[in-house]
Design goal:
This protein is α/β, with parallel strands linked by helices. The chain has a single domain, classed as Rossmann fold, CATH 3.40.50.720. About 40% of the residues lie in helices and about 15% in strands. It contains seven helices and eight strands; from the N terminus they run H-E-H-E-E-H-E-E-E-H-E-H-E-H-H. The strands form four sheets. Strands 1-2 form a two-stranded parallel ribbon. Bound molecules: uridine-5'-diphosphate. The site of uridine-5'-diphosphate has 12 residues, from helix 3 and strand 4.
């Protein structure tokens, strides 16, 4: 509904419209890496469906407004993004592992950790979105970093950087968790002249430094931390 309202507004004021879509539109992909032509593999009634299908259906009126009303849309299917200033209790894997490692709590790997993701540092993502907005391409386009890691690899990398003593704890894999994800960024490269520049190790160093300084200064309460309150 928010997308519909904003498309109506963009039509009236003749604004360029950015839809922050997601790689989740590809679901648990049968095509690897995922190109923009792929239609995806999404369970319509699972626990992730409200988000996945919500984003999929948001792309539909965006393209209808573009075709019927000439709204100047840009559609970005944003892949996993991380970096400084993420919320500590965001629940995503990078923030969870960093907070856990810094607080010497076991890193919670869901399933056996063989599922993969490709992590893009926030400054690269912002640069990609700005380039998309300044280009003449509607998209959809895949801004994301094509360097792919298993979740267990990610846990071990963060463990090594922050605290080699911290344990890794395996927990059940949530339903419909995509088994692998990596963007095909040929279009982003050729049409926007964009590709990520921040390697995972470099981005993690900046992210960890930022979390470390915030965790040292923020008072600890169980509503703003995902780990048990330390007395
Ligand atoms: N994950 C994990 N431990 C956590 C949080 C997430 O192992 O504490 C896994 C999750 O099951 C998924 C991957 O990390 O396979 C990425 O999860 P996230 O929620 O960050 O992003 P998404 O699944 O939406 O790509």
């Amino acid at each position: 509904m928010g997308t519909m309202h904003m498309l109506g507004l963009a039509k009236r004021v003749k604004a360029r419209f950015l839809l922050a879509s997601t790689s989740e539109v590809y679901g648990d992909p049968e095509l690897h890496p995922q190109s923009e032509e792929y239609w995806g593999n999404v369970n319509p009634i699972g626990i992730r469906s409200c988000y996945d299908e919500g984003k999929r259906v948001a792309e539909t009126p965006a393209f209808d407004y573009h075709r019927q009303n000439d709204v100047d849309i840009r559609v970005a299917r944003i892949f996993n993004t991380y970096g400084a200033r993420m919320l500590e209790n965001d629940g995503r894997v990078v923030s969870n592992f960093v907070v856990q490692a810094l607080s010497a709590t076991p890193l919670t790997v869901y399933g056996n950790g063989s599922q993969t993701r490709s992590f893009c540092y926030v400054s690269d993502m912002v640069d990609g979105l700005i380039r998309l907005m300044n280009s003449c391409h509607t998209g959809p386009i895949n801004p994301g970093n094509p360097d792919e890691y298993t979740i267990l690899d990610l846990a071990q990398i963060i463990q090594k950087i922050v605290n080699p003593e911290v344990a890794i704890q395996f927990e059940p894999l949530p339903q419909d968790d995509p088994r692998r994800r990596r963007p095909d960024i040929h279009k982003a490269r050729s049409r926007l002249g964009w590709q990520p520049t921040v390697a995972l190790s470099q981005g993690l160093q900046a992210t960890i430094a930022d979390f470390r300084s915030r965790l040292e200064t923020t008072p600890c309460t169980d509503t703003n931390r995902i780990w048990t309150v330390q007395s």
